[in-house]
Amino acid sequence: MPVFWPLPVEHEQAEYMRQIVRECRELLKQPLPDTFLGRKTHEPFPPESDATPNEKG
Questions:
Q1: CB-based contact 51:57 (threshold 8 Å)
Q2: Residues annotated as region Disordered (predicted)?
Q3: Mind listing the pLDDT tens digit of every residue in the chain (57 residues)?
């Protein structure tokens, strides 16, 4: 059975992929970005009454 030795270019490609994986792992360690979705920043307005402010009684 013949033995195939990796070429120098394959070493370079493997190191390049390892670097990409290292960078991706660092990105995945960072906290999720804040998208403001679902955040409750204030209380909702109270429901309006039937009469408007100009219509007094």
A1: yes
A2: 35-57
A3: 888 888 888 999 999 999 999 999 999 999 987 777 777 777 778 887 765 666 555
